[in-house]
Amino acid sequence: MTARSRLTVLAGPTAVGKGTVAAYVREHHPEVWLSVSVTTRRPRPGEVDGVHYHFVDDATFDVMAARGDLLEWAVVHGRAKYGTPRAPVEEILDAGRPALLEIDLQGARQVRRTMPEALFVFLSPPGWDELVRRLVGRGTEDEEERAARLETARVELAAAEEFDVTVVNDDVRRAAEELVSWMGTPVPAPKRD
Fold first, then answer.
1. Domain housing 20
2. What are phi and psi of 101, to 5 degrees?
3. Confidence grade of residue 136 (pLDDT, cut at 50, 70, 90)
4. Phi and psi (nearest 5°) for 184?
5. Residue 115: other Cβ atoms inside 10 A
6. Nearest CA to 18 among 140, 93, 122?
7. Are strands 33-34 and 165-168 parallel, antiparallel or unpaired?
8. Once rounded to an integer, what is the mean pLDDT over residues 68-74?
9. Is residue 38 part of a domain?
10. Is residue 190 part of a domain?
11. Distance of CA 20 to the CA centre of its chain
12. Are strands 80-85 and 70-76 parallel, antiparallel or unpaired?
């Protein structure tokens, strides 16, 4: 019988490059299973339903949350809902495969309550100015959305100490390889107050 694997949770502020690092892992480490989140936000250019996200309407999302079909879920930036379907995660962990969730801070906190044995990795930018440059440079949000995301990012950056490990995303390949290397190590002892 295969031993159950440990979940790895990757979180960090908006525009830090969580999706880019996760895409690198998907391409270069096929042994790592990446969860596909459900969201109520509209697809960005190039995003494919079922690959990048499962795009659903509010009513469908609300039914999933009410039934307990989501491992975690949250309203992000005061706008769209995001969540992680529970069943696929449980199936992959039971099969003994390494599994990665790329989620926001609120979701990571929920997963910590339900799966404290998971490894929690905080993806950090090399600095605030670089984070702002990345958010503005991707050009996918209007001015109002950027302002909301940057306000959220300030709060999210302060939460790094809640995580087991911090990986600085100064280079996507290096950060992704460091993340994957942590996935094969024992869970650090929980931080105590």
1. 7-183
2. -105, 130
3. confident
4. -100, 10
5. 18
6. 122
7. unpaired
8. 93
9. yes
10. no
11. 11
12. antiparallel
